[in-house]
Structures are given as C-alpha cells and as structure tokens.
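Q: I have 63 residues here and want to know how they pack in 3D. Can you give me a structure?
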Amino acid sequence: MKNPTKIKVPKKYADFIDEIHDGDGYWAYCKDGYIFGATGCQTAHAYTQKEILAEIRTLQENN
C-alpha cells in the first residue's frame, strides 16, 4: 500500500488498499476484487482524515 499521508489505516484494511494520497482532499483506491461499500466503487474521496477512514471501514469484497 502506498500511503504518503499521515493517515494510520487499521491493519485489517491495509491489505485491501492499493494507494492513499492527498490532493483536493483525501483519495483512497482499493485493490482489484474489493470495493468501498459506501460508494460501490474502487475509489473513495473525502475532505478529512476522519471521513476517509470511515470510507475505508466500508471496504468489502466485490462479489
């Protein structure tokens, strides 16, 4: 997982994430086979660290 931000991703989600970066808020991209449950996409965007962590906690397998 590429993470040049100061966001501390919980270990149980770290293996599902491909990259996190900041720029006009925070962006997270999950690995193939997973989606963010809140959006149903492989990409999540939020303006605060708290919001992006809430998005990360919705990660699930893409069935």
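Q: Anything worth noting?
A: Residues 11-61 form one domain. The beta strands are 17-22, 26-30, 34-36, 43-46, 59-61.
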